[in-house]
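Table S2 (continued). Query chain:
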Amino acid sequence: MGGTDRNRVAFETARLALARLRIGADAADHEVALLGALQLCAHTVKVERVGFWRFAHDRTVLELALGYARSSSDRSSGEVLLGSRHPTYWAAINERRLIAAHDAQHDPATAELAARYLIPLGITSLLDAPVFRAGELVGVVCFEHVGPARTWTADELAFATTTADVVAMALEQADRLLAEAALRVQTGRLAAAEKLDVIERLCRGLAHDFANVLLAVELVGGRLAQRGDAELAESLRGCAQVGGNLVGQLRRFAARGEDAPPRLAVRAVLERMVPIVVTLVRDTAAVEVEVEGLPPDAEAALAPTHLEQIILNLCLNARDAITAPGTIRLRARADDTAVVLEVSDDGAGIPPELLERIFEPYFTTKASGTGLGLATVKAIVDEADAAIEVGSVVGRGTTFTLTLPRT
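Corresponding output:
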């Protein structure tokens, strides 16, 4: 087989390999696929560098999206060529044709690049293939030869055109995958919003019915007091008070987005909530509170009732995670921009595969759980432009860290 035939076989083999390139779902996969194509081209055409240059800034700049050097296997990016400095080269590119500069430093189309680009890099021959998207020129694939000037062959010109077409298809596929991923995220958000709307309606009904039950409990407590059992009556009233607070939480959740009540210092909210939390968890866990780093007057950009909901739900979640007598710790601190609240437990912890699902409405690992507590927390946090993070080690416990912007 002659040299020309061997070259054609090599080009056809490379074309098949380019056609088999697949783009993954994230940006890292896109770069890996593009780098693979550039490597294949550099070794097939036997040039020192191959790069994909993309138009930017209203087509006044060509920016190196990704380049590959054959001798060192290095990748590069970020270099720019300005249209204002290279008008003849710009005009040649925008003619939407292949530029095959055998003597690039003196070719009329590319000579402008000599002083700033070609000579410093030792480039003697240049081959640029245009990349089109939806009929629009979006960039070029550039083959850069270092060493004695070479004459580009017909097979090399055809292969450069194929490479540009493959890059265009890869860009199209990458954009489609990104659009599909964004659509999935948006669909998930809409589904979550619909679930929360159902929850809000449910909360209104539950609050109404639960309030009636608590009224009956208070009446029973009053009768017990009249009969002389003051201790039992007081205990029953205390339970009714906690229940009343829960009713308030239900009503406030159902009224999310309505006019918010006045803000209150975070420390005051904690002081009001700690006795309630202690009552609810005392059969399972002790409660420790650390607020030394929280100024008494520090306010968060969040309604006190919403902060109460967050504290209550996180503490009840911590209680449910503890299988033996344990400890729930509330730590609060503040800096100039944010109030940080941590709720941690020394319970069973959350397996890594479940961490990303814990805020989903109705998702629960408890036999009698509703999956609403943490979903409520996440909804409030998102509305307040706040942030919540979760750290957990199986067998050692979980910490929720809430960061609230200060007023």
